[in-house]
Amino acid sequence: MIRLGKILAYSIFFLLPALAVGQKAKIDFEKTVLEAGLVQETGGKITYHFKFVNKGKAPLLIKYVETTCGCTVPKWNRRPIMPRDSGVISVVFNPKDRPGTFSKKIVVYTNGTPPNHVLKLNGKVVGKPVNVEKEYPFPAGELRFNTDTIYLSRLKIKQQIVNMVNTGKKAISIVSIIKPDYIETDYTPFTLEKGMIGNLIIRYIGNGNTTFSPADRIVIRTNQGESFTFPLTR
């Protein structure tokens, strides 16, 4: 019996590493690259969230998160995350005194497999316009645009981006967009706080059979009850 007990003890000892290898944590991010779009230099710090799920079979531990710039500060939960549970790594970006295009790298160190993951935050910091009315001459109430026309010839090759700025004291959001079926639109951010700059993205999704009417328009409506019409031209 003593001999049998020793054999069982040795067997368990040698099996433990194999069991540990088979049960690893695995972090799976919803997105590894976030596009911040246009960020106002004077708008203050902005927080972005990288969401993830532990798709492994063991508790996930985020050991450390490293960034390439002091303007980007990470925050994360230091407690173990159980299998199938989700979590967030938040990154606080400070655009002050950093005008221009940026691409910030965030390295996440975990106990999972693979152990290291690289995240990226991309965007462009835009300084406050010297002359808002000159650079954004087309108003929809307190929301102003830098152009009033969408050119289809450009859209068929690439997208057209319309810049906009909130010149009021209250937040402005776009509540509806009326457009032709061959046009796709997007905008960022969803809400423009006081003085914030954003962009409206216009894409052409038609084909050779798409019909175009000179009366086609894109109409933007805001939560302030204002609207702006962009004519479409070839």
Question: How would you summarize this macromolecular structure in one to three sentences?
Answer:
By secondary structure, the chain is mainly β.
Structure commentary:
The protein is mostly beta strands. The chain folds into two domains: 24-126, Sandwich (Immunoglobulin-like); 132-233, Sandwich (Immunoglobulin-like). 12% of the residues lie in helices and 47% in strands. It has three helices and 18 strands. The protein has helices at 2-22, 132-135, 152-155; strands spanning 27-29, 33-40, 46-54, 62-67, 72-75, 86-93, 100-110, 116-126, 138-140, 143-145, 150-151, 160-166, 172-178, 183-188, 191-192, 197-204, 217-222, 227-233. The strands form four sheets. The protein has a five-stranded antiparallel sheet with strand order 9-10-12-16-14. The chain has a five-stranded mixed sheet with strand order 11-18-17-13-15. Strand 9 (138-140) and strand 10 (143-145) form a beta hairpin. The termini are far apart. Residues 4-20 have low confidence and may be disordered.
